[in-house]
Amino acid sequence: MRYDTKEELTVLNELYGYLRLYTNFFQPVMKLIEKTRIGSKIVKKYDKSKTPYQRVIESEHIPHKNKEQLQQQYALLNPAELKRGIIRLQDKLHTLVTAKKH
């Protein structure tokens, strides 16, 4: 699908905003910490799965002020509401594209 109208661009930009928040605050990721070759087999070890938000909060390299801002933002977020917003915008984008074809 090609998104080439201003209305589609507006919906996409709004969708990216929701996806950024949902992914960074609520989607856990397993980080690769070790990869070892044993003969022809590669064994991978992963860190405990955490969200990017959790990793930032636990990091010693991030200033406390930034962590406080993220914690305030996190307190205002609702993952179910974000997910509903993502689905709503995906449906709207699909509707715009299919209407363009007819």
Q: What string, H for helix and E for strand, traces the elements in order?
A: HEEHHH
Strand order of the largest sheet: 1-2
| DSSP, total strands | 2
Radius of gyration (CA) equals: 19 Å
Organism: Candidatus Magnetobacterium bavaricum
Protein name: Integrase catalytic region
Please give a quick description of this structure.
This protein is 63% helix and 13% strand.
Explain the overall architecture.
By secondary structure, this protein is an alpha+beta fold. It has one domain (6-101). Helix content is 63%, strand content 13%. It has four helices and two strands; from the N terminus they run H-E-E-H-H-H. The chain has helices spanning 6-26, 52-58, 64-76, 79-101, and strands spanning 32-38, 41-46. A two-stranded antiparallel sheet has the order 1-2. Strand 1 (32-38) and strand 2 (41-46) form a beta hairpin. The longest helix is centred in the last third of the chain and has 23 residues, at 79-101. The chain is flat and about 55 Å long. The chain starts with 5 loop residues before the first helix and ends with a helix. The mean pLDDT is 95.
Keyphrases for this structure?
4 helices; 102 residues; alpha+beta
Secondary structure layout:
Layout: H1 6-26, E1 32-38, E2 41-46, H2 52-58, H3 64-76, H4 79-101
Antiparallel strand pairs: 1-2
Protein name: Integrase catalytic region
Organism: Candidatus Magnetobacterium bavaricum
